[in-house]
Amino acid sequence: MIDTEQNQKPDPSEIEQKIDALLARMTLTEKIGQLQIVNPSIFGTFEETIEELIEKLTEGKISVAEFQNMPRNYHEQEIRDGQLGAMGGVTSAEKSNELQRIAIEESRLGIPLLFGLDVIHGFRTGFPIPLAEACSWEPEKLELSAQIAAREASAAGITWTYAPMVDISRDPRWGRVAEGAGEDTYLGSVMAAARVRGFQGTDLKDTERILACPKHLAAYGAAVGGRDYNTVNLSAQYLHEFYLPPFRAAAEAGAGTFMAAFNDINGIPCSASSQLMEAFLRQSCGFEGFMVSDANAVAECVTHGFAQDKTDASVKTVVAGLDMDMSDGTYWNALPQAIAEGRLQENDIDKAVRHILRVKFRMGLFDQPYRTTPGREEQTLLADAHLAAARDMARRSIVLLKNDNQTLPLKKNQGRLAIVGPLADNQAGMLGTWAIGAREDEVTTILQGIREAVAGQSEILYARGCDIMGTEKDGFAQAIAAAEAADLVIAVVGESSDMSGEAASRIDLTLPGVQEELLRALAATGKPLVVLLANGRPLALPWVAAHASAILETWQLGTLAGHAAADVLFGDFNPSGKLVMTVPYSVGQVPVYYNHPQTGRPAGPIKFTSKYIDGPAEPLYPFGFGLSYTSFAYKDLKLPEGKISFGQKINITATIQNTGKVTGEEIVQLYVADPVASRVRPVRELKGFCKVMLEPGQSQEVTFQLDTRDLGFYDEQLQYLLEPGLFKFWISPDSTGSLEGQVMITNA
Ligand code: BGC
Fold it and tell me: pLDDT value at position 10?
């Protein structure tokens, strides 16, 4: 490689020297300033806490509209005084450059700011929610999605995203399952790394990329009862085996920052956990960047009852390894006092400042603090290539759950189509949670997408039928009339965007409001019923599964939702997505996930086995499941013969054949189980996957190479054990297993 200046990576020791020199010039106030990120405040003071704001809104002292329209204080004075390390919530090139100019030109030391925002799935071009994207099982596509989000967000002045969310989620009641890659640790780790690469690229200096912040360290998805912010009770083995690997993968992919979770684990709030931040992330994963708190989470150590007051909380979190406080000024207010009282040493502050400055130097911010211009925004946002990629990602995110009698794909000249349901012509409902940069009025609805696809070929009869929530059934008559007059009904039902994401846990996993009643009334017309689900979490819909002719799980597909759904409905794209979370039969089964430990009494016909007396133990749809417009056969499993020893790699091969009539893609999955071990092991675990494209009749051999060192597990002392014995392997279209074989693995 030619050693041009662009190709030169920063020399770490050179950066450390620069940090030393800068630290030596910084006052304590300036140091503490680096540890603070705030959002533009509406009241213009640091004194207004988030709790007080929420109280004012709840008590009606200010309306939502007033809240949104209030002039913001961008804390220019604090920036000038060197008292801020980063700003959140700034979403234009002009504003971020203006604030950066104050930091560079008017503050004493000219330390550049970071501009953080939740860029979670696309920016102005809305991509599918992360849960949906993961259903493509295509890390390269997720990487591209994150890269495009970064390109658009960076054009708008954002330099740091609080993403990806890499929490393993086994509980669909938890609204935040929408933000992650589902329930599986292996898949979650692959996707975590892909998203980090997409956001950051290979060089933090790249002005079209943004700094990633994998979150929430850790096990936030294991909140008891699926209730947001709730406590987590987890053994150390489970934590390390199921919840931490995606964080390690993200660290290995080079993530520059991480965010601590709101929850406590076994009594220690994550923002104050040296086990997570120091022992795991820094010492075990080799992380060198900085740790930010979740919003107001330092102060919430007081509410947890883990700290006496905010000063105590600040001391405990800094000591545990947290570097930056995201709030309205907890560190800013508390740390000077903590130092004055000798409860913290200036060294403790220096350590955190060093982590933050290191990232800023690695990003090259001191040399190039302005990473965009307003002109770049215009060229970049909603660029044609971004829209095309968003449409492709959306098609790949759709999971075909049912297709009786090959109802789908539809013909474009189908005749008369009744399009019904509260989400059929709904722009906001397509965007999903955390769509901060995307605009509702730029979304193509499902109805529009279908209209454009069949223009001049089929007649469309549209009726909303009912609202997403509520009990009103006045619209049923019109919907039933449309169904009766049509050859086929497409019902688009599900959840609104604010029913998933943060603070959106649900007690019930059925369709909200009277939507299922609407479906029952439509089915009673006898017309074929195609159900399109638009939702942010798996929904438990046994009646729909039993009675719809076809079901497409479309999740929340983003700006191009309508076109993507139409591409799949009319067969311009053959669906290939597969579920990354188990779909329960009933909320009563939750948490239900495929890789559960083997029980002493697996569910069976006998009463005294692990099941329910009033419903099935099996989920409605298993992890890894998804249909296609074609069919695939799995055959010729080949495993190594004879004994294999730990340390050796093994190849596991099968042949996949397209046995249907159209070209299609299949996600082939490799599962492994250790049936007998010194600890009870999962019934099976995903250890590999790939996607193959096959023409009708075509066969392809698929080989997975597995490192036998990945077949171990942790004991109670967190020792990683590799235990010899017989291991089972499956190559399979989903987590229920099809081709099965075994291999004896020994100790060398
Ligand atoms: C969420 C984080 C998010 C942060 C900043 C918090 O409430 O838990 O995921 O990044 O807000 O918006």
Answer: 66
What separation in Å is there between the alpha carbon of 88 and the centre of ligand 1? 11
Dist. CA 703–CA 334, nearest whole Å: 57
**Half-sphere CA count of 224, side-chain side, radius 13 A:** 10
Mean pLDDT across the chain = 95
What is the rounded end-to-end Cα distance, in angstroms, of the chain? 40
Give me the domains of the chain, ranges plus CATH numbers: 24-377 (3.20.20.300), 397-589 (3.40.50.1700), 632-746 (2.60.40.10)
Let me know if 294 is a catalytic residue: yes
Q: Which amino acids bring their CB within 6 angstroms of ligand 1?
A: 118, 162, 215, 294-295, 502
How far CA 222 is from CA of 243, 251, 266, 583, in Å, comes to: 9, 21, 12, 17
pLDDT digits (tens, 9 = 90+) for 558-568: 999 999 999 99
* Positions in the chain whose pLDDT score sits under 50: 1-7, 44-46
Looking at the DSSP bridge assignments, the partners of residue 232 are: 265
The closest of 267, 176, 268 to 220, measured between CA atoms, is 176
Structure tokens at 99: 């604030």
- Atom 11, ligand 1: residue with shortest CA distance: 295
> CA-based Rg of the chain, rounded to a whole angstrom?
26
Tokens read off for 115: 């501009």
pLDDT digits (tens, 9 = 90+) for 199-244: 999 999 999 999 999 999 999 999 999 999 999 999 999 999 999 9
Give the whole-angstrom CA distance, residue 462 versus residue 226.
Answer: 37
* Structure-block tokens of residue 369: 């603090």
pTM of the model: 0.96
> Which residue has the least CA distance to atom 2 on ligand 1?
294
Alpha-carbon span 59 to 404, nearest angstrom: 52
CA dist list (Å): 13 to 16, 352, 358, 362: 5, 18, 11, 12
C-alpha span between 287 and 279 (Å, rounded): 10
Atom of ligand 1 nearest to the CA of 165: 9
Structure tokens at 431: 């965007």
175 token code pair: 């609204």
Residue nearest to atom 10 of ligand 1 (CA): 162
The residues, ordered by sequence, that sit 6+ positions from 592 with a Cβ below 8 Å of its Cβ are 170, 582, 584, 619
As given in the structure block, the two tokens for residue 68 are: 């949104």
d(CA 478, CA 420): 10
Residues 87 and 39 sit within 8 Å (Cβ to Cβ): yes
What are 451's two structure tokens? Answer: 């209209």
Which of 294, 323, 674, 734 does the annotation list as catalytic?
294
Neighbours of 18 (CB within 10 A): 15
Expressed in angstroms and rounded, the spacing between residue 262 Cα and the centre of ligand 1 is 9
Contacting residues for 174 by C-beta, under 8 A, at least 6 apart: 221, 223, 226, 227, 228, 505, 537
State the Cα–Cα distance between residues 40 and 328, nearest whole angstrom.
9
81: helix, strand or coil = coil
DSSP 593-610: -TTPBPPSS-S-SSSSSS
User: Closest by alpha carbon to 181, among 233, 235, 238, 247?
Assistant: 247
Distance of CA 41 to the CA centre of its chain: 28
The neighbouring-strand residues paired with 399 are: 553
Dihedral sign of CA atoms 334, 335, 339, 342 in order: positive
